[in-house]
């Protein structure tokens, strides 16, 4: 019993500095509620953020994508949703969810329409592909971002740091990726982008709720309200746990493909020293690994050489390998003169 009291005392010591007075709580509530309102200003920022980010993904420009993220106001309804969960305010939860849904649909329609005029190579850009293979690490980033997002709003001296939170926990890019992918009928990329959007939304909502609870935001006074608040938080934790499962599977897949890519590079360089690797694409299906390699090479590769490389890779990967090598001819200057 004494140990339990000491543990509680220790916890209070650590979370005590996070507590804020009721007057500041009211100001935070009003600021979040005002900025999360689905008014004209919010709608204009959302639409133009969607346009800019979609264009940034199409031209593969990180600067343009980040600029669009700074415009996007979606962090506010997420904070409002978190605050509604903690304070047990159903109307705030409903309004925030409605604003998020409406904004997500608007951004999706914008990116879908712009996807029709975008070139096919837009789907191969680094900024685009970065939103199609989320890992558990993106979840950790969103968790940290949600907590810090609520923190910088709650404590006014560091409110300017909200820009960094908006970038780290951005929801617009994965929505735009979904729109462009569907416009190009490439449904294989949609699942990863949707998973990233969903995991960011759940993680930010959960961790922001955690900060508001630690800051002692006032919950509902009635027993029914307290029970509703408890159920809301339990469901949020459950959603977070569920979304972790596919992210772990995706992380394992990404790590496996990265290890295979390194192995392919090492094998190619060891076998063909004059080759310069330009691109490697790896696709794993059941027990077959298909490897497409593009290299710059001053000579020709015989079928026997390709078969030898394939056998080496099959032994190292311990899977059946289908190897396709595309050669970009290299003509040396002295060869031209001769």
Map the helices and strands.
Blueprint: H1 2-15, H2 22-35, H3 40-59, H4 62-71, H5 75-87, H6 90-115, H7 126-129, H8 136-154, H9 162-168, H10 172-183, H11 190-214, H12 223-271, E1 276-285, E2 288-297, H13 303-317, E3 320-329, H14 333-337
Parallel strand pairs: 2-3
Antiparallel strand pairs: 1-2
Helix pairs in contact: 2-5, 3-4, 3-6, 3-10, 5-6, 5-11, 6-10, 8-9, 8-11, 10-11, 11-12, 12-13
Quick rundown:
By secondary structure, the protein is mainly alpha-helical. Helices cover 69% and strands 9% of the residues.
Describe this entry's structure for a reader.
With 338 residues, this protein is mostly helical. It is built from 14 helices and three strands. The protein has helices at residues 2-15, 22-35, 40-59, 62-71, 75-87, 90-115, 126-129, 136-154, 162-168, 172-183, 190-214, 223-271, 303-317, 333-337; strands at residues 276-285, 288-297, 320-329.
Write a concise keyword list for the protein shown above.
14 helices; Glycerol uptake facilitator protein; 338 residues; 2 domains; three-stranded mixed sheet; mainly alpha; 69% helix; Alpha-Beta Plaits
Strand content: 5-15%
* Secondary structure category: mainly alpha
Number of strands: 3
- CATH hierarchy class name of the largest domain: Mainly Alpha
Show unreliable segments. 5-12
Main sheet record = 3 strands, mixed
Write the H/E string, N to C.
Answer: HHHHHHHHHHHHEEHEH
